[in-house]
Design a protein that fits this description.
homodimer, 343 residues, 2 domains, 8-stranded antiparallel sheet, two-stranded antiparallel ribbon
Chain lengths: 343, 343
């Protein structure tokens, strides 16, 4: 297990498992009316409330900023925000469990955990699924498995994904070859913010393409195997990068630190790039970050809707740039151990 | 006088007066032989040594790096370096007085002082001129004044110049109009490193165009008047700049500080740009520099030949970039008062 830890360390950011479910007697959300679909929300919320502290977010009540902030935290999808009739999200206080109601399917159950942790995420969401399945009659076919709005989700209805930080294989241009190779393994990899070698912040998500014909356990094992191969390529590329151009890499990392702790305004794209250099620097031992997860959360917190929420009012783009610079400088001054910077 | 100080403060970097002289009985350097011209060196050195501590630099003895280092410090010219036959420089230990022998003229006497100080520079070099004129027979015509190799230097043989730091009128694109206006006043202004709006480090030199038909005192008064007008334009443009875009200006200055104190390598062009932002920031009160002259000297010290001399060996361009970054980070960490940075 320590080998696995070494491989995924500073590469695997978070793990997510989601299950798509639909309810017998209800038409799929895309065709059904809002009034009828809204009936689903209450029983889901009631059942979840029995096992923990959950908050209910109705898309019709949420202004767009609050809903987009949840999306930026990867708790709901853009599609759910569009459904201002019957769309709802029921989210645990620790934000690890999120159940979307009336997105593409009636119910989408998700567990999102930090680090490389797919099995734990599956176990958590499986428990949620058990509880909901006792109250609600899920549409299930003996041959096809769980019935879903889109055929790609048929079967287990499961999507297992891991978010990966891949700066080195992006910078050395091997990412596109890896995207192709992963595709042939029945997996898909895409940029979380932008595609391919333009993935902002070098953040990617690997997930299974097909959910039919394999058990949940097999899917997880396959995604894990793919993730480990990508992590190995990334770790090797990082070592190579530092060996090939130690001054260049240190320069990139320490300049990022210098800019982020001193700038007065910064746009989202530059922020994403420079924070990635800081994370890479930490991974390469060029600087020490007291809490890596706080840094990863900062990336969500610096997205436009989260900034607007934190500021308590609508900000112009240039006001957001100033706010972002200020938050970032304060946080990095706390997070980065200055003594760890060896020029 | 305090008004003048306020105007020239953080704009006028240094003041220089130079006198061109030639000796009766010797052909101008461009046509004479090295052996004959070399006779001039010793008496000049002997006379100067009577009034202070001077070092003699023979261009034939100097390897190109040492000579170029003197040029980077504005103590000798590129033309002198070319004259490896009879070229020589006699420079005071405090580097305020430099006498070039066998450049374009037999003798070029220069005094270079910090700040806005033309009269003092003139008085110093006039004393040197008096002493040399007693020993050497200077070529002088009652109508034309001092005879010089190039007719533009006839008359007083004097060039009075002030080095100015003009970031604001360069950035707001009024520099070219000012260059034109100054030309009509019989003055000339040019970039110290590069021309016009491409002047590296925003450093310019203002000087008289003509040395005939005016007294030394009139020339100095005219250059001073022109300098004060330019300083006023620059100070106004700085105020305007900070008023128009306070966040943008602070961002530019503090990023420069963040990069210069953290980078691992930096090329000459970027260094010149960022050091200029630091100087501008100090002028605008955005940060405090303990010793402005040390910062101005850093610009000379970071030129290629000075770096090579300090390192004690030939460095590749990328080695120089690393050396420059290291020196700069160390010095700025000492020079800039961190508490003065108010985000």
């Amino acid at each position: 297990m320590s080998d696995v830890n070494a491989l995924v360390n500073n590469v695997a950011v978070s793990s997510r498992v989601r299950l798509a479910r639909n309810i017998n007697g209800y038409t799929f959300p895309v065709k059904a009316g809002a009034e009828r679909l809204s009936e689903i929300i209450k029983p889901v919320y009631n059942e979840l409330s029995k096992i923990g502290n959950f908050k209910l977010y109705l898309m019709k009540d949420k202004n767009s900023v609050e809903a987009h902030a949840l999306k930026e935290e990867h708790l709901i999808s853009a599609d759910l925000i569009q459904n201002t009739g019957s769309g709802a999200a029921i989210i645990s206080d620790d934000k690890t469990i999120s159940v979307m109601v009336n997105e593409e399917d009636h119910i989408r159950e998700q567990c999102l955990l930090k680090g490389f942790n797919l099995m734990a995420a599956y176990n958590n969401i499986d428990r949620v699924d058990d509880i909901l399945s006792k109250k609600l009659s899920f549409a299930f076919d003996k041959e096809l498995g769980y019935l879903t709005s889109c055929p790609t989700n048929l079967g287990t209805g499961m999507r297992a994904s891991v978010m990966l930080f891949l700066p080195a294989i992006t910078m050395n241009n091997s990412i596109n070859a890896i995207i192709n190779a992963v595709g042939k393994m029945g997996m898909t990899i895409r940029g979380v913010y932008g595609e391919g070698s333009n993935a902002e912040g070098y953040m990617y998500q690997v997930s299974n393409q097909v959910s039919l014909g394999q058990s949940e356990f097999d899917i997880i094992r396959n995604v894990e195997g793919t993730v480990l191969k990508i992590c190995e390529a990334e770790q090797n590329a990082r070592k190579q990068m530092l060996e090939n151009d130690p001054y260049g890499v240190k320069d990139m990392v320490y300049r990022a630190y210098g800019i982020l702790t001193n700038c007065i305004k910064i746009n989202s794209a530059e922020f994403m790039k420079l924070i990635a250099y800081i994370k890479l620097g930490a991974a390469l031992g060029l600087l020490k970050i007291n809490d890596e997860h706080v840094l990863n959360e900062l990336i969500n917190k610096m997205q436009p809707a989260n900034i607007t929420l934190a500021a308590g009012r609508n900000l112009s783009a240039s006001e957001r740039d100033i706010y972002r610079a200020d938050c970032c400088a304060k946080l990095l001054n706390e997070l980065v151990d200055k003594k760890s910077i060896k020029r």
